[in-house]
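Entry 12.
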Amino acid sequence: MTVDQLIHKLEEIYGGNPWHGASMTGLLSSVPNEHFSLPVSPGEKTISHILEHIIAWRQFAIEKLKENQSFDIPLNTEADWPKPQSSSNPKQYYLDRLNQSQRELLSLLKTKDDTWLNEDTHNKSYKNNYLIQGIVEHDLYHSGQIGIFNSLLVAQNNSN
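Predicted 3D structure (tokens):
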């Protein structure tokens, strides 16, 4: 995999026309604003929780691209699963934050060459290729969860 191929993958799943269906921004555009803060029953997690988590790990990749050796996110902590921010328009709030992370991630990635992909990620036991491919997979995985959450919330609302 090359840097250009990874950039293409990030662009495709984020706002393009991926083979599997809606891109992340396409999916989020179809989610009603009120669904961002509603928990799926039973449970406590919301679409906003998932988006905070996605953004946290995108920020992790951004910090590693900036060669911030000390930045880390311990698993299963508040840094890994930040509390959602309250907003009168959560859809726009999260789309803005995701757009910012996408621009920064791609901008930094475009400064790297293919040899960088085979270098170790700072203070980690894996390569940079694994990190960036992981962001692609992480975004896809959690986009699927958001789609399921939204479908369940629609069903919950229709049964009331």
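Annotation: The chain is about 60% helix and 0% strand. The first helix runs from residue 3 to 15.
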